[in-house]
Each structure stands twice: as structure tokens, then as C-alpha cells.
């Protein structure tokens, strides 16, 4: 009896200790508010995290070096990884209250990151003049907002299109695709290409597992993947989508399941497109130049296939960065963002990595020196811009649901499930995740 | 007859050696691939590279965008050595109490220790994660090493207890007669005698902490804090198959410290496994 | 008199002084967490908000409404109950071979132990991805014999076998334990049975195996427990996804995804407890069945 009391006393003691520590911490983070303007000349270190492949890492390092050179009192610690790895890591860090001060983000993550408190409301920093966004285009500005508040400073905008290898088209004697082509034309082109490609290369990657593609497919039907906290489409939509890619696989114009599965989440440098293993892949327009660096063949870009009867609409993707709410140096973090989006020195290094910049002035800085791939990219974005709309909001847990598209498409590809079964399973599991 | 026996023995040796080669083939292939020039990697599948180059080691060591493997190795070594010190100190203290001293509740606590050895990590890891997060220990080695200073690895306590029990009691009785208290007996008599147990603890802590992935993945997130294990995974994602040579070079290097430990302390390892039956 | 009593009391505290680090450790890092996780398993704790008590809902969801969970359970059970028996069979076979007094025991034992030493590391998981890839040396070797195989890592029906082989590959450590056990069997037993005219096979089935049963039990339990908790190979080989088509979605990997990917820590805690219970049940079954087949000396 006595012993029990003693043990439970200790237990309570340990718990109290923990509680005390946690209190201490929340006070600390509370005091580091935005308004404190003390640390402007002190030496501070901020952390920035981004995703990408080797080429982007090198560019970002050069960019941040330049920033440190101009603002010698601020040191920037760098964290990076592939996109999947990045998201996983940022989520873990956020849960631990250890988010980097500046975190790259995009329309795909914005809502989730705001919900997870990875991004803070930037309006006060705009009001105090630390962030200058008056010359931003409306599309870039609005794309950074959630519930009317600004959370993301745009680094540039891009549109998902089909990046293709012109050399393969030429050798196969297939006409280059034109913007606003249809799913039927896409399928036909793939078949024609395949006749030339033979057995060890394919017209396209198997994109039945890409939720971006599926989402665009849905938008053409006036729907969207999510509607509030629920799914925004019917089972038949998913069945049609999976069936299209099944048709592609059966026609042999995309890689067999095992090869596609092994491809996984590889950076541009190692993609099948860069290695000449596929002729087309759908990606964000800004990646054209990154892919181009890894292949000798000239690349082009064309709009994502459309249904002739459906809406002619493409979501505009904004890539940018936000500042963490538990940053101890929000002013310095803002300074870094401001540098990237508003200073000529930065623009010449950054060179519209994520697509045409939000500020027209910065676009002009690099316009004269654009290379061929960037010119193609900018022309594509400018042409398609009128038919874009902002990316739809996504609920918490959306990233897990997005992964399900990949799993269920794989299940069909490997013949593990019928299309009907896969669609049923998807909907059951997605609803279960969104409900949890 | 003698010839037949010798012949049989020879066959046995051949069989066993063939087994060894098959088992170790993948590792040898990794080593040999890491030494081949890139253009020969997929054309020359032989184990002996026709041409040897150390380029992959030089390139691989440069790490990922400026953070070199020097940093990663330093991080791993600091982590491992702190863990070793923690385990040696805390486990030998507890083992001495259990092995030699008499106190109330000893039986109960001993069984408590055996029970903690059985609890799977995953049952504890979520509350621990929440706790370490509240302590603001994220992205430090503290969540990994601090528990080691509190003898949480019951296995090492157990191992050391078994060892202490095998020591003749006359030794500490003699020391008691000389007027030594338990503290002096621990430092003057027991500690010097349990060196083999300490060595075993050291080796296994080294190998396990070096190879551990799960807790490092959870707690170490900053680029500058990455250990060799984490850096390798990062390297795999950033470079993938296009830099297979460097990837293999760094992978191979990462198992070298474990190899060296094994080579020098083989006896302790084999005995440690045989007597305590652990992995 | 009083000082003597005080001295005694002080001395009786000394053991606790030695024990203090361990005691604090047990409380802070085992006792408190284990009850906390039990509590969390009945909540919907998501790391940001406060935990709400939801009773058995997590446990019910798991078994009735989460096909991925059932899949992870299936994959793990298959992994454990295929890999562990195979591993032990190899371990025992090699131990018997090495124990025949042919010399070189020390060096062979060490060489066979190397895989156990490094098998759990990221480096080996990376190697495995290559070895069992579409163009890996396994397929290259099989190709020589005219067997055409797809990428093991990329094919759902094959991927888990790459992981099973990785576990079997590490048979060195149970082998060393078997070797130690074989040394314990007194030679008189064999000599006596030889005099009775028992052949090799009869000696094996009547002496070696029965005498080794306690060690077989021990090895089986230890390897089973560790196999249930395997994480690194599945995580590295599948890039953290458990793919293709969840074919390598180990229990711990799915737990990790829920707990530290989605931060559904309540759900992950219930998963951890179910794993704990499953391991407990199988360990208990192993012990329970042991009076039927394990031979105890005394």
C-alpha cells in the first residue's frame, strides 16, 4: 500500500515536471511575436527548407549565399530533400515545434500546411512594410491566400502540362501536339509514338496514379477531388479515370506496372523522360527547364489533354514560401523572402525557377537573358493563363488521400483489383481518412 | 578409409565456403561496384574490377549540397559515444545493486526490469515523442542518448548482473573486512572485474546505435544533425541510381566501422550472443 | 544508539542510490509512456489539439473499416511466419555442419555472422534495392539459367520475398546460439547411443534435436519478436510507402505513417497496443506449446 502511494507520487511528479516544461516553452514562443523590432542588426540565424533535385539545391545555395553577402548579420541554414521527403520532414518538424523559419510551399500543400500551423499569417508583415507585394499580379497574390489571409509569398506560377521530347516525335514522324488537344488525340499520339518506340521505351509514363492529373480530369467535369471535408466526385469519375489509364497500359503505350512502380519519386535528373525512356510526362511547366538540363534532346510543353465536351480549365499552381509561426526571427525571414521576390540580384540567380515571377518588374530583369526552355515555358504559361483558375482548397489529411490514387492505380495495373473494386476501395478509405 | 574421411571433409569445407561466398556476394559486389568506373558498372559484372577508381568515394564524400560526410560521421560518432558512456555508467550501477546488494523490493524490481525488456519500442515511442517534444528536445541527440543514462536498455543491465553474479563473493567480503562500504567496493573491486561485461556493452551499444534508423529518423531532422544512416537515405533520394557508384561507396563506408568493431572484438560479440542469446 | 540507527538507515539507502538512475529511467521512459499510450489509444489525439476520449473506436475502425490496416497485418504475419522458420532452419543446418569438428569453426562462424551484423542497416537496404531490382544481380543470375524475372522490388507479389530473404540472410546470430547449444550436449550421449547401434539420423532425431529444443524455442521467440518489429528494410526499400500496392506495408511502417506522417497518434497508439498484444499472444502460445515438444533436462 505504502509502496503504491510512493510510486504514484513519483508518477505525478514526473507528469508535473513535464507540464511545467511545456508551459515554459509555450510562453517562450508566445513572446517571440512579430511586433518586436529588436533583432534587426544583431547576428541571427534562420533556417530555410525547400524541395527539389540537385540542380535546384545548387541554385538555392547560390541564392542564399548572395543573400548572406548582402545581409551579413543573417545566416541561413539550409534543409532540403525530394518532394515526398520534404513534406514528411516538415510535418514531423512542425509537430515538434521545430519548423524552419522559411518553408517552401505550393498550392498543393498550402491548405494542409496552414492547418498544421507551418505557415503564419503574413498580413502584419505586409502592413509593417517588411514584405513588399504591391507589384504582385493578382493571380499570385490570391493563390497565396487561405480564408482571405496571406500565407504564401509567390515565387512564381506554373501550369501542369505535358512535357515532351521533340526528338522522339521527329524520329517517329509524329506531328507535335497542340494546346487544348483532347484525350482521344492524346491516346492516338501515344499509339503512333509507340510504333516507333518499340519495347524498351514508352510514349508516356503511367499517370493513372498522379492525383494532379486526376484532379484536372475532375475539373474538366466541373468537379474537384475534395469538397470541403469530403470527396468532391462520384465513383464513376474515378472508374472512368482508371479505365483510361488501363486502356493506355493495354495498348502498351505506358511502362508495365513493375517498371512504373520502381520509378517512384525520383528527381528530374533520373526521370524516365530525362533518360529517353518515355516521350511524354505531365509535370508543372516550370520543370521544363530542369528536365532540359538533364537531356540533350529538345523538350517542349503542351496543355494537359481535355475532354471535348467538358470545361476548358486548368488550375494555376503557385509555388512560394511561408514563414513559420514559431519563428523567432520573422523580420529576418521576411527580409529573405523580400530579397528573393523583389531584388534584381536574386532574380538573376533564381531565374524564375518556379515559373514567371509574381512581380512584373522581376520578370523584366531576366526577360532578356531567358534561355530557349524558359522561353517555351513562358510562352506556354502566357497562352494558357486565361483558362486557369485558382487551385481548389484541400482539407487536412488530403496528402494521405492523394497517395491512395497511386496505390489503387497500381492495384489495377498489377491486376490485383478490378477497376470497380479499386474505385470502391478508394472511396471507402478516403472517407475513412477524412473522417478520422 | 582415411582418404574417404579426408575427401568427405574437403566436400564439407567446399560446401561451407560456397555458402559463405553466396551469402557475402551482395556485399562484395557492392564493394567492387563502388570501385569501378561509372561506364563499366553495368557492363562489367565481375567481382574483380578491371580498372579501379576511387572517384566514387571522393565524390560521395562531398555529401549533399555542401554538407560532407565528415559532418555526418562526426554526428554519428558523437551520438554513439555518448550512448556508450550512458549505458556503461547506468547499467553497471544498476547491475551492481541487483547483483550484490540487498534491499527491499529487490525481487519485484528485478522482475520489473525483465518486463521492460519485453516491451516493444512502438508502444513507448509515441508518448516518448510527445514528452521529448514538450521538453523541446527535437532535433537534438538528447531523446536518443538521455534514456541511456537511465539504464533503459535492460538487456545490458541483465548481462552485467549475470557477470557480477559469477564473480566470487569472497572478494567483496574481504573488502568489507578492510572497512570498505558499497561505494568503494563498486569502484575498487567490482568495476575492474567487470571489464569484459563493459566491453560487451560498449560493442553492442556501438553497433546498435550506429545502425539504428527509427529513432534517428524521428528525432534528428536538421540537415546539419544528420547521422550517416540518415544521410545515406537522403543520398539515395537525391542521387538515386544515377550516382550508384557514390551511393554504394558511401553505403560500404557506413558499414566499415561496424566491421572494425567486429574484427577487433569478435570474441566478445560471439560470447555475448552465445551466453545471452540476443540478436 | 541513535547514531548507529541513523548510520544503518543511511546505509540501507545506498542500494537505492545505485538503483536511482535505473528507477527513474523505468518510470520516466517505460512506466509513464506505457500507461500514456494505453490512454491515448482510446482517444483521437492528433498532436495539435487535446485528446478526446472516444472509447474503443480506434480499435473498431482498425478491424472493420481500415483495409490498409488489415493488409499491413497480413503482410507482417506472412513475413514473420515465413522468414523466421526459414531463418532458423538455415541457422540450425549450418550450426550442425560447422559442429562436425572440421576445423576453421572460428572463421566460418564469424563470416556467417557478418550479415546479422549489418543486415538491419540502411546501407544493406539500399544494396537490396539494387540486388533485387529489375537489372539487379539476382535477376542477372537467374537470367543465366533462362529464368526471366520482373523487378522484385517493383512487383507486389515478389517485393515481400526480397524482404523475407533479407531476414533469412541474417541467420548468423541464431546460428551462433545453436552452436553454443550444441556444445552443451554431452558427448557421452552420442557415445552411449553409438554403442546401442544408433545411426547418424537416429542420433540426430533422438539426441540432438530433443536436446536443442529449449534453444529452438528461445531462438524462435527472439526472432519472432524482432521480425514483428521490423521497420528499416521496408521503409528504405519502398521509399516509405510500403508499396507497390501495399505489398511491403509492414505493421510498424503503417504505424509510423499514421503516427508520424498523419499525426493520428491516438490511432497509432491503438495499433501499437494491438501489436503488443499480438506479440504477447504468440509468445504465450510458443511457451504453452513448449511442454509438448521442448525437452527439459530437469
From TrEMBL, chain A:
Residues 1-19 form the signal peptide. PROSITE patterns: PROKAR_LIPOPROTEIN. It holds the Pfam family SBP_bac_8. InterPro entries: Bact_solute-bd_prot1 (IPR050490), SBP (IPR006059). Keywords: Signal. CDD domains: PBP2_TMBP_like. This is Sugar ABC transporter substrate-binding protein.
TrEMBL record, chain B:
Keywords: Cell membrane, Membrane, Transmembrane, Transmembrane helix, Transport. Gene3D superfamilies: MetI-like. The keyword NAD does not apply. Pfam families: BPD_transp_1. Residues 73-265 form the ABC transmembrane type-1 domain. It is found in: Cell membrane. PROSITE patterns: ABC_TM1 (PS50928). SUPFAM superfamilies: MetI-like. GO terms for cellular component: plasma membrane. GO terms for biological process: transmembrane transport. The chain crosses the membrane at residues 12-31, 72-98, 110-132, 144-164, 185-210, 243-265. The keyword Membrane applies. Its main location: membrane. It comes from the Bacteria. It is a multi-pass membrane protein. Belongs to the binding-protein-dependent transport system permease family. This is Carbohydrate ABC transporter permease. It comes from Cohnella pontilimi. The lineage of its organism: Bacteria, Bacillati, Bacillota, Bacilli, Bacillales.
TrEMBL record, chain C:
It comes from the Bacteria. The chain crosses the membrane at residues 12-35, 77-98, 110-128, 159-182, 265-287. It is a multi-pass membrane protein. The keyword Transport applies. InterPro entries: ABC_transporter_permease, MetI-like, MetI-like_sf. GO terms for cellular component: plasma membrane. The keyword RNA-binding does not apply. It is found in: Cell membrane. Pfam families: BPD_transp_1. Residues 73-286 form the ABC transmembrane type-1 domain. Keywords: Cell membrane, Membrane, Transmembrane, Transmembrane helix, Transport. GO terms for biological process: transmembrane transport. Belongs to the binding-protein-dependent transport system permease family. This is Sugar ABC transporter permease.
